[in-house]
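Sequence in, structure out. Go.
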Amino acid sequence: GVGFSMGAIVVSNYVARSGEHCALDAAVAISGGLDMRQMLNFRRSMRLWQPMLTFGLREDILLGKFARHIKRRLSDTQFLALLRTTHISALDDQAIVTYNGFEDLVHYYTEMSAMGDREPEFNLFGDGGGAAPTGVEGRGWGRIANVSVPFAAVHALDDPLTAWRTIGTADPQSLADSGSGNVIVVLTESGGHVGWPLGNNPAENKWLWMSSVAGSFATAVDTARRKRVE
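Output:
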């Protein structure tokens, strides 16, 4: 299974929660996030990049395709607040949280994240918790340690929409070593969000890099399993 952006968040959560019952042979999450609670502090993106995406999501999907369903569950005050949202977290709070009955935004991001059940790093809630300790002796890894199939999380450090901190830890090697060692973390210095343009004319290669990563990973997993059978 391969997921991009929101699809990557979904596939990550699935392989973590399903554990040994996972129906996939392997999974790749591209430009998603393993701990979406970290988006709560991504203020530069909220101001600069997210307003454009928020407008499209709100107008085309929430107020277009699903408008009648949204209006049925939201009060007039809540619907007005939805119309005034300017970034993704606000949109999630006013639409998704309210519509689906989550307690609050933190509850929603906790449930949607593969690493949402562990204590967050990076002093997220200002409680003095820094990047360390990590691992089983510190915070513990929670459900991400239950991943039972080869799983690659691919993320660019300069992603303008999904913070690099959504990888969930300052110690990606320990994350890769967690559980049965099925998690692979691929971090690139640049690449943007579902981007990784190549060459002087990116339009020529389009999404070749990330498509090749997903394809190569699937091929490598298949080859390794065939050799193991032999």
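Check: Residues 9 and 32 are 5 Å apart (CA to CA). The two ends are 25 Å apart (CA to CA).
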